[in-house]
Amino acid sequence: MRRLLTLLIPVLLTAACASSGTLASASSTSSASASAARSPLPAASSSPLPVGSPVAARILAPATVMPVVGLCSAVLEHTADGNAWPLLCRGGRVNVLAWAFYAQLLPHTLAAGRQATLADVWAAMCHEGNATNVELEYGFDIAAAYYGWTFSFDPTAIRC
User: Fold this and answer.
1) pLDDT in tens, 105-157
2) Which of 15, 78, 122, 138 has the fewest beta carbons under 10 Å from its own?
3) Sign of the CA dihedral with 125 first, then 130, 133, and 135 last
């Protein structure tokens, strides 16, 4: 399933991981590469994003700024690998329950901020301890929606 998030956030940059584990390069991408991105839903799911209940705009900890998108509340479904979704509701609104779930696991990533660069996000993810690849992917996705990041990369390629 194609990453629904890429329909909401324009993809301008992608990064490649060098064998040494450092950020190697960033290059412009087209919408064609965006259509080949990951899905913010578990692979087995073909469900559309839930409508969710609207939530009043507010700063969600550990963020220190307001989100660039609306907020919602949708019941979390916990996956077999210990993750939770949906990250977003229809219209690209951030699910506050998913944010709270991932804020406990990925506080550095979710606190990176609106002005974070790809290198900043990379460094934040390297401080997330024993986070799994899926946790890193979901954390990046929800933070990208919240902050309006316009870059994309594969969090599973990080070598710290």
Assistant:
1) 999 999 999 999 999 999 999 999 999 999 999 999 999 999 999 998 898 88
2) 78
3) negative
Report the 10 Å Cβ neighbour count for 76: 16
Q: Which domain holds residue 13?
A: 5-157
Instruction: Tell me the sheet residues that pair with 25.
Output: 16
Helices (H), 24-131: 31-34, 96-105, 107-110, 118-126
Residue 149 contacts residue 101 (beta carbons within 8 Å): no
What is the pTM for the complete model shown? Answer: 0.73
CA nearest neighbour of 121 among 134, 130, 111, 131? 111
Q: Is 46 left (phi over 0), alpha (psi -120 to 50) or beta?
A: alpha
Q: For residue 3, what are its two tokens?
A: 């990453």
Contact in structure between 139 and 106 (CB atoms under 8 Å)? yes
Say if CB 145 and CB 88 are below 8 A apart. Answer: yes
Number of domains in the chain: 1
CA distance 153 to 32: 15
